[in-house]
Amino acid sequence: MMNITKTKNGSNLSIALEGKLDTTTAPDLDKVFAENLGGVENLVIDMEKLEYISSAGLRSLLVAQKTMNKQGSMKIKNVNELIMEVFNITGFVDILTIE
Hints:
The chain is α/β, with parallel strands linked by helices. Strands 1-2-3-4-5 form a five-stranded mixed β-sheet.
């Protein structure tokens, strides 16, 4: 299960993720991206309460990153140790902007 909280302010969009980003929940995040990234120049994804990420979740982030490369910037913040390890192992630290 995952909760997605989004806050849009003009061309800025913040998305907070809580729970597990996996095969079951990644389509929900994909839908949020599909419906909300139009006109967004700055995307911030807060992972403070994200407990787990699978390859499906990584794919969702990659798709969002490719979209944002064309229209602005994407930052990921408050990544816990476990998810940072996944980002390191998969090479996503070189693809994503992580604060």
